[in-house]
From TrEMBL:
Coiled-coil stretches: none
Location in or out of the cell: Cell membrane
Record has Membrane as a keyword: yes
Gene3D superfamilies from the UniProt entry: Amino acid/polyamine transporter I
Annotated GO CC locations: plasma membrane
Descriptive protein name: Inner membrane protein yjeH
Keyword Transmembrane: yes
Lineage: Bacteria, Pseudomonadati, Pseudomonadota, Gammaproteobacteria, Enterobacterales
InterPro entries on file: AA/rel_permease1, APC_superfamily
Keywords on record: Cell membrane, Membrane, Transmembrane, Transmembrane helix
Length: 418
């Protein structure tokens, strides 16, 4: 797909993906994993990275051979034709009504913790966050990448400061033996922890904006994933060392509580600011990805349409404006209907896993050699995750079936394997 500015380098790509994966999870998931598996969660993170690696390699291969702003929908188009691609694209966009309101609620919650804001103040924070994303969208993806590299550095710096001030060293970590591990808690922890690695499909939409996509996109994806996994593991070590989990403590309050314990109450606003920026970074890459998907679909069907036009910086600003308006309406509706946060997250996660599965199946058809083997393994893992989610995947299946029936069909096109 031509037109978008190609100005993302390797370091910027690592920052984009790592902040996308860390997002809201870096403050909450280590405590949730520790609550479920306790010391066993130290082994759960390396195990999860090993399980997700096949999916990451398949995504890296797809992005390397087929860089396109359409992302997952483009891969599916090449493998299974335009009808399935449109279904996949709209399925990805169906995350907006449930996923973005959840992310905005979590992000504004850090402002509430730091400054005690009321409902009106929280609403203004959410609107301000969307406005900031729109302002970033006025420039190319490289500008967002530069900001997210800084946010990634702040998250890493906070974890390093906790380890340093808390006197945590690698030699003192209490690794449980194999005999001490229990399968039930480990599997439950893995089910929770997997959501930390939701974000690969959003990153795929930016492959066409790398200066050297064939070289740097796979490297950024794999390095960013390992960096995020390392940060999650380090946070889990800190949470376990200070026993900052369980009881009446909210999961997202675990790391801020450690910061206050080590550096005093005045440091709370710093931890909350970093928490908000982590959420903002995740929301930014997703909304920018949504915009690129909308733009790519419009550009293919109606190149002269308003939503298919690029800004002077060659970014899909019109498509981003449309996406953010939908986000704002969805957020206001979720607040008016008082939809529970956990329900919003679960329904969004079901769609993400479904899209992962479609991408892995596309990889099985498009890729060759070791990459195809990784795609087959990734497909099996996605099926297992859908089974684990259970009936809560009904939203994803219902949306897929509805889109399959109502979207028009066109002539299919299949490409050769790479």
């Amino acid at each position: 797909m031509s037109g978008l500015k190609q100005d993302i380098g390797l370091t910027q790509g690592i920052g984009l993906l790592s902040t996308s994966l860390l997002g809201t999870g870096v403050f909450a998931v280590p405590a949730l994993a520790a609550q479920v598996a306790e010391q066993g969660s130290l082994w759960a993170w390396p195990l999860l990275i090993a399980l997700v690696f096949p999916i990451a390699i398949a995504f890296a291969a797809l992005g390397r051979h087929f860089p396109n702003a359409g992302g997952a929908a483009h891969f599916v188009n090449l493998a299974f034709g335009p009808h399935m691609a449109r279904v996949t694209g709209w399925l990805f966009l169906s995350v907006i009504p449930v996923g973005l309101p959840a992310a905005l609620q979590i992000a504004s919650g850090f402002w509430q913790a730091a400054f005690g804001l009321g409902p009106l103040g929280l609403q203004l924070v959410q609107i301000g966050s969307l406005l900031a994303i729109w302002l970033l969208g006025m420039r190319s993806a490289g500008s967002s990448a530069n900001l997210q590299v800084i946010i990634a550095a702040l998250i890493v710096a906070m974890v390093v400061a906790i380890w340093w001030k808390g006197g945590i060293t690698l030699t003192e970590i209490d690794w449980p033996s194999y005999q001490q591990l229990s399968a039930g808690p480990m599997f439950s922890a893995l089910a929770v922890m997997f959501w930390c690695f939701v974000g690969l499909e959003a990153f795929a939409h930016l492959a066409a904006e790398f200066r050297h996509p064939e070289r740097d996109f796979p490297r950024a994806l794999l390095i960013g994933m390992l960096l995020a996994g390392g940060v999650y593991w380090a946070c889990t070590v800190a949470v376990l060392a200070f026993h900052s989990y369980g009881g009446d403590m909210a999961a997202a309050a675990s790391l801020p509580a450690i910061v206050v314990q080590l550096f005093g109450s005045k440091a709370l606003w710093i931890a909350c600011l970093i928490g908000y920026l982590a959420c903002f970074a995740s929301m930014n890459i997703y909304t920018q990805s949504f915009a690129r998907l909308v733009w790519s679909q419009a550009h293919e069907q109606k190149p002269k349409a308003w939503v298919a036009q690029l800004s002077r910086s060659r970014s899909p600003l019109n498509a981003l404006t449309l996406v953010l308006i939908c986000c704002l309406i969805s957020s206001l509706a979720a607040e008016y209907l008082a939809l529970p946060l956990d329900a919003l997250i679960v329904y969004a996660n079901g769609i993400f896993v479904f899209i992962y599965l479609l991408c892995m199946l596309s990889g099985c058809r498009l890729l060759t050699g070791r990459s195809r083997v990784m795609a087959f393994i990734g497909s099996a893992l996605c099926v297992l995750l859908l089974v684990m989610i259970g009936w809560k995947t009904l939203y994803a299946f219902a949306m897929f079936a509805l889109l399959w029936l109502i979207l028009p069909r066109r002539k299919e096109k299949v490409v050769q394997s790479h």
